[in-house]
Amino acid sequence: MTSTEESKHYWRDVGTVDAYWAANIDLTDIVPALDLYDRSWPIWTYGEITPPAKFVHDVDGRRGLAVSSLLSGGCIISGASISRSLVFTGVNVHSYSTIHEAVILPYARIGRHVRLRKAVVDSEVRIPDGLVVGEDPELDAKRFRRTEDGVTLITGPMIEKLTQ
Fold it and tell me: What DSSP designation does 19 have?
């Protein structure tokens, strides 16, 4: 194997929340180190058949949009704004919410007027209306798991504690 061939290989340790978040967010780069669109390096994995991602509402302050992000099928972005994020299958993000540098795992539901920044949301988590994460490090650390690099992990049991 030549040095040129070796430079094409990709390996990344994702054994911590910070590393997992960073590896996913790196995919939002214009041409990431792991280019999911490189047809010469196919990805062999299970592919769920879902409808395409859908963006609805187009009025100031309530526009369904995503920029520098990857969204899987089955997502509905309803009057919410997403930037530099990865949104997995079947996620719903409701009106007036803003998501930045987040990894949202399958079938999560993000309520209205939510602001998430630098977060990982676990599968099937229901984020309540008005929740703000990523703006107050001390509050985030009290309610959720916040890493040294400032990534906030949000799981179902953590959300349940908030609503009790």
Answer: H
Calpha distance 115→153 (Å, rounded): 14
Neighbours of 158 (CB within 10 A): 15
Q: Which of 159, 164, 73 is nearest to 116 (CA)?
A: 159
Q: How far apart are CA 16 and CA 143, in angstroms?
A: 19
152: number of CA atoms within 13 Å, CB side?
Answer: 26
Model's pTM, two decimal places?
0.90
DSSP designation for 42: -
User: Could you tell me which of 64, 123, 51 has the C-alpha nearest to residue 98?
Assistant: 64
In this structure, what DSSP letter does residue 45 have? -
52-69, pLDDT tens digit by residue? 999 999 999 899 999 999
Alpha-carbon distances, residue 28 vs 17, 108, 153 (angstroms) = 18, 20, 19
Q: What is the spatial distance between Cα 24 and Cα 26, in angstroms, rounded to a whole number?
A: 5
Task: Identify the segments of the chain with pLDDT beneath 50.
Answer: 1-4, 6
Please work out, in degrees rounded to the nearest 5, the angle formed at the alpha carbon of residue 120 by the alpha carbons of 25 and 94: 100
Q: Tell which phi-psi region holds residue 18, choosing left (phi > 0), alpha (psi between -120 and 50) or beta.
A: alpha
